[in-house]
Amino acid sequence: MFRKILIANRGEIAMRLIRCMKEMGIDSVLACSSEDEDSLPAMMAAETVCIGPAPAAGSYLNQAALIEAAKATHCDAVHPGYGFLSENAEFARKCEENGLVFIGPDADTIKLCGDKEHARELMKKSGVPTVPGSDGLVPDEEEAAEIADRIGYPVLIKASAGGGGRGMRRAVSVEEVRQAFRDARAEAISAFGDGSMYIEKEIQHPHHIEFQILGDRFGNIVQLGERDCSIQRRRQKMIEEAPAQILSPRLRMKMAKAAVEAAKAAHYVSAGTVEFVVDQTGKFYFIEMNTRIQVEHCVTEMETGIDLVREQVRIAQGMKLPFRQSDIHPSGHTIEVRINAEDPEHGFAPSPGKIRFVHFPGGGGVRIESAVYTGSRISPYYDSMIAKLIVHASGRQEAIHRMRAALEELTVEGVKTNIDYLYLIMFHKDYLLCRFDTSFIEENTDRILKWDQTSRKRAGLQ
Questions:
Q1: How many domains does the chain have?
Q2: What are 104-155's pLDDT values in tens digits?
Q3: Is residue 123 part of a domain?
Q4: What angle do CA 151, 152, 158 make, to 5 degrees?
Q5: In a domain, 438, yes or no
Q6: If DSSP codes are grouped into helix, strand and coil, which group holds residue 86?
Q7: 440: domain CATH number?
Q8: 15 occurs within a structural domain
Q9: CA–CA distance, 100 with 98 (Å, rounded to integer)
Q10: Beta strand ranges found along 11-75 (DSSP E)
Q11: 3-state class of 143 per DSSP?
Q12: Are residues 307 and 449 both part of a single domain?
């Protein structure tokens, strides 16, 4: 059993991990930057170690400093959370070499799944549907143009090592393909140190559906249901919910089976997510596998009652999954929104600064994941997320009403936020009728902002 775990992360996920460790009787050591020494996670952890300056390159991405911090504080394991080094195979390997358990898949699995093109080829061989595209990596822009002409436009030029929308460009003509290939490769080399590229046909107006999976070291793999993550801006998720209303029972069953097959093909151990797009005809395609805990893991926890972080730790300790597929019964409806310090009226520009006052909603079926408090700061050095607000109810309509009430109660003063923007989405006709896909935000932002301005004027706030 682990006695002490290093948490190599910050913010709300660090708080989530610290709470779980406390419940499991495990001491937590928070590795934090100088910017976060007065953060809530730093106050709550059993120990805190400053590993470097505010910029992530010198702290949260500093592998040597993290390993040294874990060894100096006699930790048994390292939990990377999400982002930063959570999907870095080199870091996972260094942990293992230094006698530390990396809480997640092993380095080889992370490397395999992180190489998007190799993962795609593995899925093809395993019978999991993949998006039409290049056979293998594309060496140059001329071959990229030939492939794009063959599979048809629009196409997406993607970095094999990419993620979060980086190293990805869209093209609708042969001229755009050449420029997009150069731009995407340059960004991929800068961001990931790897300029390997491949091409996929763009599935237009898709739904983004992901399945949560868990695998142990004894070959047991289960899926815990899906999440609809279609409402996103620039490929960054904004609202997630479960179950996905667009899936028929038959399609859900087929996708769940494909998700388990994908995990088996990768010999997957720990918590992970198999991501698909579903087109307008109901066909689905594998796009990637995330080898970490997801930001939106709380949605699945509310649906199933299973603590995913706890299971990650148990699996890392070498324990078997305590349930079978037949024991998992998602129920009700869950919606999660991401509260960000950003200004929707000015292109969603980040809004760092001091939080003068914060009040979080409560009540039955309402959950908040956050690391902010009155007087804390939203740093310009990191992600602008203030909190995740999650609600659970017996059905979707009740969940929407509960989310409206929670957003009305949620108060954050001192920085700009997207609270009003999210609140208005909860009244949008297309959202209420489930007539949305990944283009929803792009197509509706101007209209939503106009509603917001009108409602403010009526309330005498402008």
A1: 3
A2: 999 999 999 988 888 988 999 999 999 988 988 999 999 999 999 999 999 9
A3: no
A4: 70
A5: yes
A6: coil
A7: 3.30.470.20
A8: yes
A9: 6
A10: 27-33, 47-52
A11: helix
A12: yes
Single pTM value for the model: 0.92
Neighbours of 97 (CB within 10 A): 10
Please check whether residues 411 and 322 belong to one and the same domain: yes
Say which amino acid occupies 7: I
Residues 6+ apart with CB under 8 A from 461: none
> Coil, strand or helix: which one is 236?
strand
Instruction: Report the distance separating Cα 400 and Cα 422, nearest Å.
Output: 11
Q: Are residues 86 and 157 in the same domain?
A: no
Do 212 and 297 form a contact (C-beta atoms < 8 A)? yes
- Any residues with CB less than 8 A from the CB of 420 and at least 6 apart, and which? 344, 452
Per the annotation, the verdict on 292 as an active-site residue is yes
Q: List pLDDT tens digits, range 156-189.
A: 999 988 776 789 999 999 999 999 999 999 999 9
Q: 316-355 b/e with 16+ CB inside 10 Å = b? A: bbeeebeeeeeebebebbbbbbbbbbbbbeeebebbeeeb
Which residues have CB under 8 Å from 385's CB, separation 6+? 11, 12, 338, 339, 340, 341
Residue type for position 67? I
Set 292, 314, 338, 396: catalytic member:
292
Residue 321 lies in a domain: yes
- For tokens 């801006």, name the residue: 233
The residue written with tokens 């004894």 in the block is 218
What Å distances lie between residue 293 and 9, 102, 190, 245, 308, CA to CA? 12, 13, 25, 23, 8
Residues 355 and 404 grouped into a single domain: yes
CATH of residue 20's domain is 3.40.50.20
Structural domain range at position 182: 132-201
Phi, psi torsion values for 31, nearest 5 degrees: -90, 115
Two tokens, residue 373: 């408090």
State the average pLDDT over residues 274-282: 95
353, 442: one domain: yes
Q: Please tell me whether residues 311 and 177 are part of one structural domain.
A: no
Closest of 204, 206, 203, 198 to residue 180, by C-alpha = 198
CA-CA-CA-CA torsion sign (142, 148, 154, 157): negative
One domain, residues 68 and 180: no
- 363 burial type by CB count under 10 A (0-12 exposed, 13-18 middle, 19+ buried): exposed
pLDDT, tens digit (0-9, with 9 covering 90-100), for 76-106? 999 999 999 999 999 999 999 999 999 999 9
User: CA 315: distance to chain centroid?
Assistant: 21
